[in-house]
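Budget justification, computational time. The allocation requested in the original proposal was used primarily to generate structure tokens for proteins on the priority list. As evidence of use, we reproduce two of the resulting records. The first is shown immediately below.
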Amino acid sequence: MNNNRKALSIFMRARMRPLSPTTFVCVNEQNRINQMQFPPIDGVRNGKVSTSQDASATLHTDVVRVQQSMHAAMSMNKTEILDVALDDFSEGYYGLPNENRRALLLTLAREYDLNRKQVRDLMKQYLGLELPSSDKPLENAHEGEGSFSAFYRIERNLRESLKPMYEVLFERLNTHPGGLRFLSIMRADILSFLAEENTAVLRALDSYLKEKLITWLSPANLQLHHITWDDSASLLEKIVAHEAVHPISNLLDLKRRLGMGRRCFGYLHPAIPGEPLIFIEVALMKHVAQTIQEVLWDDPPIPECEATCALFYSISSTQPGLSGINLGKFLIKRVIDVVRRDMPTISTFATLSPIPGYMQWLLSKLAPTEISDSTFSENLLTPEEESALLEATEYLLQEKKRGKALDSVGNFHLQNGAMVGRINWMADLSEKGIKQSAGIMVNYIYEVEHIEENAQSYFGDGEIGASDEVRSYLEPRQEDHQEEIKD
């Protein structure tokens, strides 16, 4: 190992010498990286720091050292030395403060991007080729092969040139021990920096890494795990730490959620053992629950043999770097399949979901109004409560962004193939529930035979499926609107 690190150190020092920039028309990704000049970071060039402050100089030197190992991780071919370079890069990156991570990621995004001059040259060559005339039959197969060989060659070169050089780094890290977790952390940093400053080169870096992660985290590469009280303490600690919807208050609360009448399932990846990437909590019930209190606090749970409904009441991700990668879609469908197989008495699959953006939307959009006539025959709600419930229906069914539901939780379930089944007043009395959605929660229904149909309608036309009960809440408002137009 020491010899490998010595060889790596010699290699990186050699790489620090400026290289003459060279443009290649057709070279593979490895040669392009080997030929490129080692890019500078602000205030740093060729390993020398141009600053008068020792502390700043140390920080810049650290960045240069990590950048050296990053470049080596893309340039090396010998397995033993490559492993050392990948280790040095990841360890060095972990040790950098945020401002230096940002500088390194900007360098990666800018200097290891694709070669656009090469792409343009290839496109010009491609556009300069003349297509064989379709009305003149080719005399033989060899003539056809010759006519298209130039197209095939340039198309192949274009495919290669359209790959950014940092793809090599991502691919190698993915197959390196601990590399997938590292890539997730790197992407979490990218997303954090983008939230502060929406930089085009970082957006491109994020988009490319996200597409890679989607491929590597396909359902075929994930393992469904039924999480129980008998799992390791470290795994259970992660469930407690990452529960994002209804915080777990103590060990008794955790044990209840994993015990009789309850299920918890998580997706694990072999490269990140002992840590679910995402997990879902399920309550086995006689009927679709209308309040979170009856799910979390009412005792005792019913005998499992009497359950007819599987209620999904919480789904949480443990990896911020996997944001936007819809693992939950596959997890819900897989859990439905498992529950149907193991418990044939269960025929209803539903959620009890929060409406996290509702109150913010309501307060910013609506002015105080009075309702003179009740639209509920039994007058169970006060006018203020009724107004909030009606506005929640409008928010869930009609408020959209880019043709899809404005509510993030709603958008998640609708794109998975669910429909809005029922809106429940005073369903979450916690401080968070009142603040986010005035205590209102939603039952999204997963009708197994209509899941794919609903998902296609939502993706294609933005159609939000809803029960007749939910749609009936909108009718008084629509009638009032029509009357206003007439007046």
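The second record produced under the same allocation is shown here.
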Amino acid sequence: MRHFCDLDDEEQHALGIIPEENLDIEKQNPLHKSQQPSKPARKNESRVSVILLDQGLFTVYKRLFVMCLALNVTGLVLASTGHFPYARNRAALFSIGNILALTLCRSEAFLRVVFWVAVKTLGRSWVPLFLKTATTSLLQSLGGIHSGCGVSSIAWLVYALVLTLKDRDNTSTLIIGVSSSILALLCLTSLAAFPLVRHLHHNVFERTHRFAGWMALCLLWAFIMLTISYDPKSRSYSKELGSRVVKSQEFWVTVGITVLIIMPWLTVRRVGVKVSSASGHASMIRFEGGIKAGILGRISPSPLSEWHAFGIISDGKKEHMILFQQHSISL
């Protein structure tokens, strides 16, 4: 469920949304936020040092990242040494498959099904507590698989490009150019997701991830159509695709990626809101219509740029609400 809200200045102030031009004022006057002194920072620790040193070396997220990357690296080694001929002949498919996997890890519709199955299966009194805890930790750290598949897709695409360049007589310059552009966009999105960039410049990360991702998807469709229609014998493109498209595994995987990316945008609605501030620390935004409590809701004053996720409070009948911590959103 997503909401696109038009907020006036008073409502944005109540929600704690800080315009970009006011960020410097907020930094210069830390008492402006709540008129109360903030908690003292730990001595000699900058934000950068916290990001680099206080994240833990063996978190579930990082274990999933390493596991995902290790599996793909193993596949790459086997393919490059001739022990995995299918992967060698379908390197681009493995790259696209990794993109499908990382998209699934961020698909709310897919994750809702996964969580529902997990609760129905493990949410019983006789299931051991350690199994419930381990499953919960795993589901909360699927971002590790998302990141691992992102890096792996780049590795497979580089491998596919190397093989293509070695066999340039059987491909076209246009196909090489499109695949190189996709590689550049994937590298850009991965660099934008690097912890230092993501934490220190979060809006840059959000917008780069979104717009570069959309551009890469469009180029991926161009790549699929070009590779299916290209005839290396005549060195020309055929207009009669027909059965080639249906039989192409890359085509169907790309269809899955496209559907997963489009689905969330079908739930976006522009809605009216009522904002109230019960204290200097929290604000409540209310929407019409009751829904099931516990569902995740996303709101944005600028839907193409960024989204902010919050838990939903609802009576299940007339309205649902989101509770904000004051100044929790910085635009």
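A brief technical remark on that second record: The chain has 14 helices and twelve strands.
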